Amino acid sequence: MAVNVTDENNNPLLKEFEFPPFDSIDASHVRPGMLGPEVLSADAFSAFEDAGLHDDKAVRETGHRFRETILTLGGGKDPLEVFVHWREPSPEPLIRHNGLLVAA
Protein backbone atom coordinates (compact mmCIF):
# COMPACT_ATOMS: atom_id res chain seq x y z
CA MET A 1 0.00 0.00 0.00
CA ALA A 2 1.49 3.33 -1.05
CA VAL A 3 1.48 6.29 1.30
CA ASN A 4 -0.28 9.28 -0.11
CA VAL A 5 1.94 12.39 -0.10
CA THR A 6 -0.77 14.41 1.59
CA ASP A 7 -1.05 11.75 4.31
CA GLU A 8 2.72 11.86 4.77
CA ASN A 9 2.73 15.65 5.09
CA ASN A 10 -0.09 15.61 7.65
CA ASN A 11 1.24 12.78 9.81
CA PRO A 12 2.19 14.31 13.19
CA LEU A 13 4.73 11.54 13.77
CA LEU A 14 6.63 12.51 10.62
CA LYS A 15 6.50 16.30 10.94
CA GLU A 16 9.97 16.60 12.47
CA PHE A 17 11.51 13.56 10.80
CA GLU A 18 13.69 14.11 7.76
CA PHE A 19 14.20 11.14 5.49
CA PRO A 20 17.74 10.80 4.10
CA PRO A 21 18.08 11.56 0.40
CA PHE A 22 18.57 8.36 -1.55
CA ASP A 23 20.74 10.05 -4.17
CA SER A 24 23.57 10.14 -1.61
CA ILE A 25 23.50 6.38 -1.10
CA ASP A 26 25.48 4.77 -3.88
CA ALA A 27 28.78 2.99 -4.37
CA SER A 28 30.72 6.15 -5.19
CA HIS A 29 29.60 8.19 -2.19
CA VAL A 30 28.90 6.63 1.17
CA ARG A 31 28.20 8.87 4.10
CA PRO A 32 30.73 8.33 6.91
CA GLY A 33 27.97 7.74 9.47
CA MET A 34 26.71 4.80 7.44
CA LEU A 35 30.09 3.06 7.37
CA GLY A 36 30.67 3.12 11.14
CA PRO A 37 28.32 0.25 12.00
CA GLU A 38 29.93 -1.93 9.33
CA VAL A 39 33.39 -1.21 10.76
CA LEU A 40 32.26 -2.09 14.29
CA SER A 41 30.41 -5.20 13.15
CA ALA A 42 33.42 -6.56 11.26
CA ASP A 43 35.71 -5.65 14.15
CA ALA A 44 33.43 -7.41 16.66
CA PHE A 45 33.42 -10.57 14.55
CA SER A 46 37.20 -10.37 14.21
CA ALA A 47 37.46 -10.52 18.02
CA PHE A 48 36.00 -14.02 17.81
CA GLU A 49 38.28 -14.86 14.88
CA ASP A 50 41.28 -13.65 16.89
CA ALA A 51 40.20 -15.83 19.80
CA GLY A 52 40.08 -18.81 17.45
CA LEU A 53 36.70 -19.86 16.08
CA HIS A 54 37.48 -23.53 16.74
CA ASP A 55 38.53 -22.90 20.36
CA ASP A 56 35.27 -23.24 22.30
CA LYS A 57 36.74 -21.92 25.55
CA ALA A 58 38.25 -18.82 23.89
CA VAL A 59 35.04 -18.11 21.96
CA ARG A 60 33.02 -18.47 25.17
CA GLU A 61 35.37 -16.05 27.00
CA THR A 62 35.16 -13.54 24.15
CA GLY A 63 31.38 -13.89 24.12
CA HIS A 64 31.26 -13.34 27.87
CA ARG A 65 33.33 -10.14 27.57
CA PHE A 66 31.07 -9.03 24.70
CA ARG A 67 27.96 -9.66 26.80
CA GLU A 68 29.40 -7.92 29.88
CA THR A 69 30.32 -4.78 27.94
CA ILE A 70 28.38 -4.32 24.70
CA LEU A 71 25.11 -5.96 25.72
CA THR A 72 25.12 -4.95 29.39
CA LEU A 73 26.17 -1.31 28.95
CA GLY A 74 24.38 -1.02 25.58
CA GLY A 75 21.82 1.78 25.63
CA GLY A 76 23.04 3.47 28.79
CA LYS A 77 26.18 5.01 27.27
CA ASP A 78 27.53 6.29 23.98
CA PRO A 79 27.82 3.26 21.64
CA LEU A 80 31.40 4.01 20.59
CA GLU A 81 32.45 4.48 24.23
CA VAL A 82 30.94 1.09 25.09
CA PHE A 83 32.68 -0.57 22.14
CA VAL A 84 36.06 0.97 23.07
CA HIS A 85 35.54 -0.33 26.62
CA TRP A 86 35.35 -3.84 25.13
CA ARG A 87 37.89 -3.49 22.34
CA GLU A 88 39.65 -0.70 20.44
CA PRO A 89 37.90 -0.59 17.03
CA SER A 90 39.88 -0.91 13.84
CA PRO A 91 38.84 -0.63 10.17
CA GLU A 92 41.29 -3.42 9.23
CA PRO A 93 38.80 -6.30 9.75
CA LEU A 94 36.25 -4.66 7.42
CA ILE A 95 38.94 -4.13 4.79
CA ARG A 96 40.06 -7.75 5.19
CA HIS A 97 36.50 -9.18 5.16
CA ASN A 98 35.82 -7.29 1.91
CA GLY A 99 38.84 -8.96 0.32
CA LEU A 100 40.91 -5.81 0.05
CA LEU A 101 43.60 -6.96 2.49
CA VAL A 102 45.16 -10.37 2.80
CA ALA A 103 45.16 -11.76 6.34
CA ALA A 104 48.63 -11.96 7.85
Automatic annotation (TrEMBL):
Family indicated by similarity: Belongs to the peptidase M3 family.
Cofactor(s) listed in the protein's UniProt record: Zn(2+)
Example of a GO biological process term: proteolysis
Pfam families named among the record's database cross-references: Peptidase_M3
Occurrences of domain Peptidase M3A/M3B catalytic (ranges): 38-99
Keywords associated with the record: Hydrolase, Metal-binding, Metalloprotease, Protease, Zinc
Cofactor binding notes: Binds 1 zinc ion.
Stated name of the protein: Zincin-like metalloprotease
InterPro entries the record matches: Pept_M3A_M3B_dom
